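User: New here, any thoughts?
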Amino acid sequence: INKTDKKQFFTNPGAVKDLLKVDESKYYVTGTGFFTEFNLTNNLSWNENNFIDGIRGKSIAQNNTKTHTYIATNNGLFCYSEEKNWEIKYQNRSLFLKNLIAYKNGILALSNQGNVYFIHHNQVKQIALKKQFNHLKKIDTTVYLIEANKVFLFENETLKPEFSLGNQIKIINLEKQNQYFYALTEDKVIRI
């Protein structure tokens, strides 16, 4: 505990890539070498016994019933439930994903190749969208897919164009505040 401002700090030897709130005091966390839990109790604690070791975790999401937690890693997609974990495959092949978000009664996932998948328990379905995306974003309850310089609203497995920026501008991330979108690019933030 920092005595000046009372902030609590904890360091882990691996780089943290994603954090998911489980309840008021518990978070799941993944990063370089691990997937584990982090507790915000009076004594800040990090579970030293990782649920999954030897991975480079990228993203975490939990289904709407909070019974299954999905972890995108460099070794594929893993599911964690009731203190067990297993790999989920698509057509008997590992899935290499970079974004996971809770969506309806499952998980929406974006692959490293730009494809979109829907995951429900151990079942994986590829959603045919005829585009390659570089980012998947959920703002409140709305899902957006980003394709280089274009943003699409994703609803019921269909796309609706929201806006497009110039051909030389690559959108990295997206936020929305009131009626405005804020597109993060490699060197600026653009309000739309």
